[in-house]
Amino acid sequence: MAQTEVKTLAITGNGAVSLAMKQVDPDVVAAYPITPQTDVVQNFSQYVANGDVKAEFVTVESEHSAMSACIGSAGAGARTMTATSSAGYALMVEVCFVAASMRLPIIMTTVNRALSGPINIHCDHSDSMLGRDSGWLQIYNEDGQEAYDATVMSFPIAEHKDVRLPLMNMYDGFIISGAIGPLKPLSAEQVQQFIGQAPDYPKLLDAKNPVTMGPFDGLHGWYFEQKIAQNIAMENALDVIQDTYDRFYELTGRRYEHLMKYRMDDAEIVVVVANSAAGTARAVVDKLRNEGIKAGLIKLRTFRPFPVKLYAEALADVKVVGVMDRADSFGAPGGPLYMEVLTSLYQEGQCAKAVNFIYGLGGRDVFPQNIEDVYRRLDAIAKGEDAPRERIYVNAKGM
Amino acid sequence: MTHKDKTTKEMKWDISGIKNWGPGDHELGSIIPEAGNARYYHTGGWRTEFPIRDEETCTQCLFCYFFCPDSSVLAENQKVTDFDYDHCKGCGICAKECPADAITMHPESELAERVKK
């Protein structure tokens, strides 16, 4: 490990990410404020005003324009970042597809917040799940430290020649974005060394080698093949992400993987969950283990690309898996994460029992007792109780 | 030699075989690595009427050249020489704007006999 002594800061999740942005010092940030992301770019605008960074900060009139400005900026070869939440992300989504198909490595922080309606500013994952088919890499983070680290690690991943895709980092609105937690930051020099120079690629504003970007595909063109190429890049990203995680471990001693296993070695009942609820779930696992219940936990980090084989491997010897979704897909067999886990098992020929738990919509609290109830239900199913095919709602009123 | 033959030979981006290109053969992100090659794509096919200019009536005011929305009035040494029928869409703006009424529109079916390509 390169570091012997690292100062620990007490800082909010948003503060941690804006610090990472300051240390990265991208060429361009184009953003529009929205709760609970606002202070990410608010802090950054302060860094710009203070002359702490060289970045061009573009204030725009909407998130649609923010992402459009990012596309122009990244197309010109500039390192480009933005941040959003909820309805702001929803407004971006049309252009997010364009960013991905143009293969522009834009880095975006999406602080998870519910989508309307009823109008709600609190945390769930329905915003980022809305864009799961937009062609962006998606990384979910438990706390401010993970979000900080992920921001730094984003650049070598998104800019890699075999990937070249935009990337979004998620963490929970308010629970993480506004709450103060510990952060062990890198130095600005370490960040710069880790991310390196942005690689050279065809640029819109290179007068000596002019190109056309974003052309009309024609009436009988190659749209289909370009879409296949995007999926190939997603598959390539699996190795590139893990390689980057490994390189980060060498620097910091902080280990990251596509999915983070906790007490999984002999686990019989397992919960899969993303973001901040994973911290609560670990405490519950410890309690159940003390009782002799073989409980385990998988924390999702990489959602796009979805590491199918790793989930199948991790769940190979498990009796019952409970997938906790903080977003619903109305009318679908279950929440988005549930469907992906189930598909992963099926594709690898496994038939572990799997139950879907929907929790935390619109910021509904998820207490240790709620997660313990989830494990107790899984335990009962492992012992012979029928596994329900329909969703189980966690801490919903009147259920 | 038609306009098409001339332009195809000038194009630098080798797209021979593009009809069979797979996902790995295309430029990343649909980039076209050669600027200005839209001229190689002939867009005159949906024309129903084509313009003819009467050399004797024309005053060389160049209104048609400036008004044409498709850059399809060809000029050399500040004099109109011809129309680019590969890209002219037959909108008739040149005929409408011509102060000398030197440009007239004719049914597309007569193109072959009226215009030497």
Quick recap of the structure?
Chain A is of the alpha/beta class and 399 residues long. Chain A is built from 12 helices and 15 strands.
CATH class of the largest domain in chain A: Alpha Beta
CATH topology of the largest domain in chain B: Alpha-Beta Plaits
The topology string of helices and strands of chain B comes to: HEHEEHEH
Most extensive chain interface and residues per partner: A-B, 21 and 18 residues
Q: Biggest sheet of chain B, open or closed, and with what strands and sense?
A: 2 strands, antiparallel
Name of the CATH first level of the largest domain in chain B = Alpha Beta
The largest beta-sheet of chain A arranges its strands as 3-2-4-5-7-6-12
Q: Which oligomerization state do the chains in this entry correspond to?
A: heterodimer
Uncertain segments of chain A = none
Structural class assignment of chain A: alpha/beta
Helix coverage percent of residues of chain A?
40-55%
Q: Mean pLDDT score of chain B, rounded?
A: 88
Write the layout of secondary structure elements.
The complex is a heterodimer of chains A (399) and B (117).
Chain A: E1 9-12, H1 13-24, E2 28-31, H2 38-50, E3 56-59, H3 63-75, E4 80-84, H4 86-101, E5 107-112, H5 126-130, E6 137-140, H6 144-158, E7 167-172, E8 180-183, H7 188-195, H8 223-252, E9 259-262, E10 269-274, H9 277-290, E11 295-300, E12 302-304, H10 308-314, E13 320-325, H11 336-347, E14 353-358, H12 368-382, E15 392-393
Parallel strand pairs in A: 2-3, 2-4, 4-5, 5-7, 6-7, 10-11, 10-13, 13-14, 14-15
Antiparallel strand pairs in A: 1-8, 6-12, 9-11
Chain B: H1 3-10, E1 49-53, H2 63-67, E2 73-76, E3 79-83, H3 93-97, E4 103-107, H4 111-114
Antiparallel strand pairs in B: 1-4, 2-3
Task: Give a verbal description of the structure.
The complex is a heterodimer of chains A (399) and B (117). Chain A is α/β, with parallel strands linked by helices. Chain A has two domains: 9-252, Thiamin diphosphate (ThDP)-binding fold, Pyr/PP domains (Rossmann fold, 3-Layer(aba) Sandwich); 259-393, Rossmann fold (3-Layer(aba) Sandwich). Chain A is built from twelve helices and 15 strands. In chain A, strands 3-2-4-5-7-6-12 form a seven-stranded mixed beta sheet, with helices on both faces. In chain A, α6 (144-158) links the parallel β6 (137-140) and β7 (167-172). The longest helix of chain A has 30 residues, at 223-252. Chain A starts with 8 loop residues before the first strand and ends in a 6-residue tail after the last strand. With 117 residues, chain B is an alpha+beta fold. Chain B has four helices and four strands; from the N terminus they run αβαββαβα. Chain B has helices spanning 3-10, 63-67, 93-97, 111-114; strands at residues 49-53, 73-76, 79-83, 103-107. Chain B has a two-stranded antiparallel ribbon. Chain B has a two-stranded antiparallel ribbon with strand order 2-3. In chain B, β2 (73-76) and β3 (79-83) form a beta hairpin. Chain B is elongated, with a radius of gyration of 17 Å. The model of chain B is unreliable at 1-8 (pLDDT under 50). At the A-B interface, α8 of A face loops of B.
